[in-house]
Amino acid sequence: MAKLKEKAYRWIFTVLAFSSLIFLVGIIIVLFKEGLPVFKEVKPADFIFGKAWYPTFDPPEFGILPLILASFWVTVGAMFVCVPLGVGSALYLNELAGHRQRAVLKPLVEILASIPSVVYGFFGMMMIAPFLQNLLHLPTGLCAFTASLTLGIMATPTVCSIAEDALSYVPKSFREASFAVGANRWQTLVNVVIPAAGSGISTAIILGMSRAIGETMTVLMVAGGAAVIPHSFFEPVRPMTSAIAAEMGEAPMGSAHYHSLFAIALVLFLITFVFNIVAELISRRFRIKLGLGG
Amino acid sequence: MDRRIVKIEARDINFFYGSRQALSSVSIEIYKNQVTAIIGPSGCGKSTFIRLLNRMNELVPNTSLKGAILLEEEDIFDPSVDPVEIRRRIGMVFQKPNPFPKSIFENVSYGLKINGITDGNFIEKKVGESLKKAALWDEVKDRIHENALKLSGGQQQRLCIARCLAVEPEVLLFDEPCASLDPISTSKIEELILELKKYYTIVIVTHNMQQAARVSDYTAFFLLGELIEFGKTQDIFTAPKDKRTEDYITGRFG
């Protein structure tokens, strides 16, 4: 009887474990199945490098370069915000904050990471955009810059939290060894702690990037939405995610437009997939380097 | 034999972690070029005490100290004293070998670099000397740029000793240096300690009474945060004055 029970548990958990794999495979199959037909209308190179995105014109044009560039600009811009803020606050939390401060601040940072992105979008739309518009006399505050800023603020807690974990994995004995030969706090941080946590911090940054590039609601609300190749950070842009979200409702099912949106999703999926693999490789190297095993 | 010079003097040390008292009125003299062993059961304050000698306990939050520790008659806790300078003069080797995940060379040269030395020839010479003094040179001279974590535990511990020696300290503190080593590595470290005492003043915390008897000239016995007895190692082990010392070294508790 007990044996049967154990067998049943084993079976249930195996099914549960494999279900996530099934979902993943299912999503990938759908992306390919629904995305690839667009290449009957447009050559892959023209799709990726085409400069015009006019899916509803006659004849339609399916060049997603403006969308890719918009995602790229907004993500890079967000990095300029979330890397210094996230890594800086991780260093503060780990090195300078006392126990009591950290006990309050770390959970707060993690709560910040769980705020729905639409709230960040609201914040960007209602506070940052009008502020920037007035400050810089822009035609509209909804532009790549605002999107970068909002996304950056949004990705900061992710970067901070993971980078802080990496710093706290650095064995205390490394710090002690450094202090014991007469290093001060700053030298210890720069020469021992940061190099030892370096790959973990890189992982944090890459995961922050993949959060920023995959974010939809915020950019839909604040990036402005113009599907043209951006020439400055202060122009409205339409990143890949917001193109999919905004247009999916209007694209007739089975049309070339519909398939092209799936193809965009496929490109996006491949990009974030590469990001995550790189992050995983780096963090594995980091564990081996610290002697924690692979 | 009684031409001994006091290198470090602890005067009436009381130390607290929060409200818990870890050391009570400890006074002791550490003599120059002698090995002083600190023995006692777990939790008796011996590690706490040795970590006070190079102000390492300051890294632990919420501690307080009364009393003075004099390094050649200068109070190391005086506000004008830089703890960084104290730690350069008083090196420390820890319980578990803790090399940095860098090359052997970088490990030993680390202390020189952070102390502002940039002369490559000097650094190279110093690294070689330190590794020789730590009896590790012959084993690593052909692979000095390999990652230090590839060394065995005993070699790593000698590397940590070499890393200390490179910055030319006056005192070496060993906090149970053999706690995680096998008997052969342990005996190598012990031989090394006997060799090093020609140049340095040494304090060693140990759980192993045979080790204390083998390497030390003086022994201090701690119990529950108090210094129970201090004297020549030979006297402590053959004719202890205090009943508690006798009970401990004969293995009646511990």
Characterize the structure shown:
The complex is a heterodimer of chains A (294) and B (254). With 294 residues, chain A is mainly α. In chain A, 75% of the residues lie in helices and 1% in strands. Chain A is built from eleven helices and two strands; from the N terminus they run ααββααααααααα. In chain A, helix 4 crosses helix 6, helix 6 (144-169) crosses helix 8 and helix 10 (240-247) packs antiparallel against helix 11 (256-289). The model of chain A has no long low-confidence stretch (mean pLDDT 90). In chain B, helix 7 links the parallel strand 7 and strand 8. In chain B, helix 6 runs parallel beside helix 7. Chain B is globular, with a radius of gyration of 18 Å. The model of chain B has no long low-confidence stretch (mean pLDDT 91). The interface between A and B is medium-sized, with 23 and 28 residues.
Features:
heterodimer; A: 294 residues; mainly alpha; MetI-like fold; two-stranded antiparallel sheet; 11 helices; 2 strands; 1% strand; globular; B: 254 residues; alpha/beta; six-stranded mixed β-sheet
Which fold name corresponds to the CATH topology of chain A? Answer: MetI-like fold
Please trace the helix and strand order of chain B, writing H or E for each element: EEEHEEHEHHHHEHEHEEHH
Q: What is the CATH C level class of chain A, in words?
A: Mainly Alpha
N→C terminal distance of chain A: 39 Å
